[in-house]
Amino acid sequence: HLGAGLEQFRGHRGLTYVAVTSADRGHLNELARLDQLVTLELIKPASGETGLDSLSRMPNLREILVRDCDCLAGIFRQVSALDQIETLDIDNGSGFKDDDLESLPNLKNLRHLRVTNCPRIGDLGLERISRLDSLETLVLTGSVGTVTENGVRSLSRMQKLAGLTLLAREFSPAQIDELSRELPACKLDAR
Q1: pTM of this prediction?
Q2: What is the CB neighbour count within 10 angstroms for residue 59?
């Protein structure tokens, strides 16, 4: 928790990773001053508009990790303003639906997306994820709801994908076979 502020870190040129628990807009505005920060981990971020958009002033920020979040709708909306982000890693989240993934394709430099233990992504969400043209690796474990052939077709369009990790129990064997056929250059891990 950043109750004491960031005064102790000012001028600390080597600080590249920070993990923050229960961050709110004020905390993230303070963090935005850490211009060398590369990785930010948000654990149980405050509900509502957390202020992630203020992080767009951080030229070196490339990776955001979100843990134990019950307000993912707001996180997805706000993270779309951070076009410098290359890695987005979300674990154990709730409070979102497929529509909330609409802004993800704005992340033009996103290369790695990991969404685990967020069991709400369906066909529409997969279609939105498939519009991430720069995506190289995608991990969706414990995060997929009901997926039809439409969702599999969306994933199949991701020809630049080098790695795809799924839980076999969230997809039928036929769907996994189709993904293997349609994405021959992609390393498919269906656990």
Answers
A1: 0.90
A2: 10
Listed in sequence order, the DSSP H helices in the chain are 25-31, 72-79, 123-129, 149-156, 173-182
Residue with the bigger pLDDT between 79 and 112: it is 112
Amino acid letter, residue 69: C
Percentage of the residues of the chain whose pLDDT score is greater than 90: 47
Q: Dump the DSSP string for 80-123.
A: TT-TT--EEEEEEE-S--GGGGGGGGG-TT--EEEEES-TTB-H
Amino acid at the residue 62: R
Q: What is the CA radius of gyration of the chain?
A: 17
Q: Please give the residue that has the higher pLDDT: either 96 or 114.
A: 114
CA 67/CA 137 separation, integer angstroms: 19
pLDDT digits (tens, 9 = 90+) for 9-49: 655 567 889 888 887 777 788 888 888 889 999 898 876 55
Contact status, residue 122 vs residue 151, Cβ threshold 8 Å = yes
| Strand partners of residue 112 | 87, 137
